[in-house]
What does this fold into?
Amino acid sequence: MKIEPRQVEAFLKKPDPRIRGVVIYGNDDGLVAERAVALAKAVCPDLGDPFRVVDIAGDVLKGDPARLADEFGALSMMGGRRVIRVRPAGEEATAALKNLVAAAAGDALIVVEGGNLTPRSGLRALAETEACLAAMPCYMDNEAALEGLVESAARAQGLAVDADALQWIVERLGGDRGQTRSEIDKLLLYKAGDKASDAGKTITLGDAVDILGDTAAIGIDNVIAATFDGELVALDRALDRVFSEGGHPVQLVRSLQRHADQLHLVSAHAGKGGNIEAAMFKARGLPRGGPVRQRFERHLRAWPLRRLGDALQAILKAEIDCKSTGLPDEALARRLCLALASSARSAKARR
It folds into this structure.
């Protein structure tokens, strides 16, 4: 069976007892791991219990496809339903899961942590079509989901997040749930000792910049500058630095989108005879002066409205591809940056 997004939270809290195994898959490794732990804990709260929890590496099942059905049928020595965790798992686990479907009896829950399984995956298809199995997809969070995640985590600690801080945080978080949780936890830890006053109970833009405005953000700014300036050598260097320091491809793509959106907003306003200063004020986050403002004005002159529209289409396609094709996110982000930079370079050569 397929578990729809609206059904996920309820299923994680109370798994259907008729389900023998759940394949959790998708391009968000952090969310796959988080949901696998939550599902396993719904059956056995102590995942360190050696009598009720068994860990099996996916590649073990390739040489021993009967192992899963054997574990499923084994009795719990101390009582209580058992959990069999299979991780990481790919197509090599398909035969073992077929044996699980055919098994006569058992009371364990099999939790399989798959990778980014495509619709053609035999493992995914088996989990989606068998009545005693379930497939649970995990894809990168969109901005609305990220906002909800930040606000709920802050609320659980007795904190609020002001609107400017929330927008800034979401723009800089990648879509990967594990990375997102790490960054949110870092911010909440910083604010934990600052709740004595009412002011200390709100996470401000200043708090967010102080804690999360690290070298990764600077590196992404360098990528944006090189991309829209058409500087291919500088772009290659900046991309290498961002990814070597753990930068997330989807975060980079969203930063490119934000910059292109701002350019498009101001360019469209100017094209209608509007005041550029007013349009730049409307494009939130733009400084009133300094090198960042100068860079923005340079890009505004270099990128006419039509090419900005094409750029936004390319950026949107890249984000969709990152979430749906199974291709490496980093390669897709690099290809996008190179295409935009090449466009800027060609336009510069024609001027």
In short: The first strand starts at residue 21 and ends at 25. The chain has a mean pLDDT of 86. The beta strands are 21-25, 53-56, 83-89, 109-114, 133-137, 160-161, 202-203. DSSP finds 17 helices and seven strands in the chain.
